[in-house]
Amino acid sequence: MRPQLVAKLIAEADKLWGLIEGCEITLEANPSSVEASKFADLASAGVNRVSLGLQSLDDQTLEFLGRAHDVKEGLAALATAQQNFGRVNFDLIYARPGQNLDDWQAELEQALGFGTDHLSLYQLTIEPGTRFETLVRTGQLVPADDDHCADLFDLTQEITTAAGLPAYEISNHARIGQESRHNLTYWRYGDYIGIGPGAHGRRLSTATERHKKPENFLSAVERNGNGLKVEQALSPDVQAAEALMMGLRLGEGVDLATLAEKTGLAMAAMVDETEIQKLCGLGFVDQEGDHLTVKPKGMPLLDAMLPKIIADVLRT
Length: 316
Fold this sequence. Notes:
By secondary structure, the chain is an alpha/beta fold. 46% of the residues lie in helices and 18% in strands. The protein has 16 helices and twelve strands. The protein has helices at 3-17, 33-36, 39-45, 59-65, 71-84, 101-112, 131-137, 146-162, 181-187, 214-224, 236-247, 256-263, 267-270, 273-281, 302-309, 312-315, and strands spanning 26-29, 49-55, 87-94, 118-123, 167-169, 172-174, 200-203, 206-210, 228-233, 254-255, 285-288, 291-294. α1 runs parallel beside α3 (39-45) and α6 packs parallel to α8. The radius of gyration is 21 Å and the shape is globular.
């Protein structure tokens, strides 16, 4: 995207809604020299935060992940980003095949040494329909087992917390005050507007989805005045389930009383208190009054725990 177009989009958003002073405007970018060459102009256009998809600090791993950049190019893009933007994030993927604890510790400590105030650290997951899933199915790739992933997760929390970037979300780490405001809106189940091709939105109890292919999106805009593909009212049950699934990823957890007020549902209709007490006893979750949080010990098991926490009426 040309910086001139970015400037026009920001100006149009300001005209339509009004941007607050210091509004967070994030660019997600590939760490290539082509992208990095635009950073100064993008900063002038109004972007004040950048998130780079480095993914690894190892060339062999980048090749395995199918990335076009190498480590040298990625780190050059990071340096350029830090010269042009006050807030910089980059992501790394761990729990890769054959990666041991010492390997990950060395890579993570190297990453922390670059001095950014935010890191996104994701475990490698095998998604259906991907090249990785084919490799696993044919025996050409052996993913890390659950116990090893848990050890890597614990090591990640230990190192980032000691460095002053604790996890505020299951995969995101930041210094206090440097959390991604954009993503916090998702996780706190606030309203957000999805505008461009493929964008999803949640606003006024309605879910929206735009056409994914740019040509279909543009045709819909010309035909209807917008690129909408789906516009669907969300029932209180769906809203509660989505809010719990997103909010329990956060270290701050979910205030059930606030969620009950927003959805009009009783707390007993949203969560299974019996299961929560069991998980509290195991040290996986904590409940103080109406506030429910997943403890660090429970975060690696979040996907398995969510179906137990969410009440039967929401699961159906």
